[in-house]
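In this supplementary section we document a worked example of the pipeline. Step one takes a protein sequence of length 546 as its only input; no multiple sequence alignment statistics are reported here. Step two produces a three-dimensional model, which step three serialises into structure tokens for compact storage. The input and output of this example are shown verbatim.
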Amino acid sequence: MDSQIDLDGTAGLPRRREPDLAGLAAFTLDRAGRVVSWSLTATTLFGQAADGVVGHDVCEVLMTGPGQREFVRSALDQVAAGRVWSATVAGGALGDGRFAIRCEPMAGAGGEALMIVQRAWPQPTPNWLDGAAVIGSTLDLSETAAEIAAVAVPGFADGIGVYGAERLLAADEFTSPQGSREAVVRRLAARLRGKPEADTNRLLRPGEVLVLGEDSPSSQAMTTGEPVLFDALDGQSAARLGSHPDGQELISGYCSFLAMPLIARGAVVGCAVFARTLASPAFSPSDIVLAGELASRAAVCIDNARLYHRERRTALALQRGLLPGRPRVPPTMEVAQCYLPVGASVVGGDWHDIVPLAGGGAALIVGDAMGHGPEAAAVMVQLRTAAHTLAELELAPEEVLQRLDRMAAEMPAALFATCIYTVVNPDGNSCVAAQAGHLQPMLTSPDGGTQILELPPGLPLGLGEDSFEATEIRLPPGATIALYTDGLVESRTRPLDKGLAALRHELTGALAGPGTTLDSACETVTRALREHGEDDITLVLARIRD
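The serialised model returned by step three reads:
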């Protein structure tokens, strides 16, 4: 018997083979939801032949979208009771279009149901869903969740809670511990119709981490990846809410709920729980389709925000690890330092360090790895760590630079760096300095006079020349030595000679006043010169205490 029956024409009359301009089709289902017959127009409308559909569950071949299994079950229950059922659906194998479906009992057909499906022309998206376009306007997780809540309430529901999977948010773990069916979630946002945001947040606190038992509808939705309709809160959730002063009012005021999993890139990233009061119609299977459209966009936006938050958290953690620790300044000396990375970076290629030495002296180190940003920072942190370790061994400045030079030459990246290494001796009012391709230090006397200290030339680290020479410098009482990087004195609009002149001028003014601290002077000089800066800026000022 041919299972493709004529549901489109009148028996006994020739059928005209014309295009299905109305987008109308019909098929029949048995009580279990299996396809009994499949019309020619169904083949035309859905692109599936009868021999591939008949005998199969309609939820496996056509109604495959979120919540459509419940949709079909509800329709068949209505037909079994002798009633006609209708709704509008979309998604799954139906595709992007929306379809009006009517399901009615067939007389004398043993409980079979006739499904009449028509493409809705036009079937506009509900107005409240238009607002979903704004979701994800930022990559902030809390703001994204708040945008989801604002779209859903009051357009679709009277209340909503948006939750993220805590293991995914905190540690990028996609699965729960083996054998556990509990869901650990973090409330990202909540919204209740007619209730001020402050009151809602006191009751349903954003950021609160909750452990949901396996009987919780939210846990079930996240575990199965399927929506769950329910008409009362589970005992655990009711007890939690009931402990709040306004919780009982919330429990008694809502009577219909829908837990919708948020699935992005194949992973369940959270759950949205919609709620309606007695004044609103209870959620129906057709509402699941609309909630699914919102959930699909919401899940991707939440996952985008989660990924951005993870990358930013990782970057900040790495950058904090690259920044120098609190300097240990010997009591015989006064030292100040300023560091300003270029652009939005937290660290770049510049580095500075202060290493206390035996006898009350200290090694002052300033370096500059070529470039800026993460690549330069990766070279910088290796050189800074090595220089600090070598300084603690109290090696001579030229020997420290020789070892750093050999280390830089062996690095995989073909980068080089400049460095100046100075050992200050308070007992002798002197310092010994050597430089590798770096700018010469400046010395400012108490009367405001400045001079550039001429050190023997040295090539930058990484060129493998291994030839550096140290010079001993007398430090008059109260004199301040300044070490700096080229970002402070040179840019595309300011030649080096003019930048050095500006630095001498600013040092004279900042250090001339009686009782001026090095910290305030360092900040003043850096602020005055940074406006022309196009590179990382480092300035270190040091003097021997009286």
